[in-house]
Amino acid sequence: MKSINKLLALLLALIFSLGSFASCEQLGIGGQLPVNPDGENGENGENTGNEENGGNSDVQIDFDRYVANVSIRFATNDDKMKAAVDAMASSAVINVDKENISVNTVSALNDTSIVNNYSLVGGVLYRGLFVSSGEYAASSYKKADVSDLSANKLLSDLGTGANIGLSDFDTHDMSKSSGGYTYTCSDITDDARESLCGIVSSRFSSVNSATVTLEAVEYILETIGELNESSILSCHFTIVMNGVSYAITMRIYTEYDYTANPSISAPADADDYLQVDYSEVVG
What we know:
Helix content: 10-25%
Radius of gyration: 20 Å
Shape: globular
Order of helices and strands: HHEHEEEEEHEEHEEEEH
Distance between the termini: 30 Å
């Protein structure tokens, strides 16, 4: 049981590392998807809209305004770990409106929950952290002046760390689906693997009795017209602890909504947030 509890702690560390995982390419920040070979993504990179996406050829999509819903799930074939892994849950909602952004994450395991609320508004980054475990509860409120911080940079620094997208895989299988395309990617590039491994290693460095190996990564992206509709990033790990090897798969599911009208504002009690350096807010 002690080893299982420690392993669950490691998986929670993975959630904190990748919980708000998103990349510019995944979320379509500042640009469209790669043009398909038959050119059906529209001429000259213009958005053509899509009937199945609730629009038509005259609808223009603002790629700098969207909502992304992210969930993280674990899977294992180990019978002793399966119930515990199934009980873990983590989700995030990312709202972007030009250079204003909010990232709200919730992670839970049994009676322990951790909530992180980030918001970047008007050149100020706010973070509200809420932790509860049984009868114990704690909170923290910090802010930092970041006049030159972009939404892309914030998403990267929030442990999204490695911006994984189509270009980070050597093998791409593309098939046409209803209204768009499905990209199935494998054989992650060395640079992307190194970046992901760096995130994992930094989180697990304090646990001397455990070694974590990233065995493989797959990425599936579904599109409608030029819009990202959904994606699944699968990371396959081998964790060795106390001489026992565990095979764990972490899947990050993301759904995209470019028709939403995100409303992002500073916290009502922003004046009560502790002024700190940027590193203390994202750390």
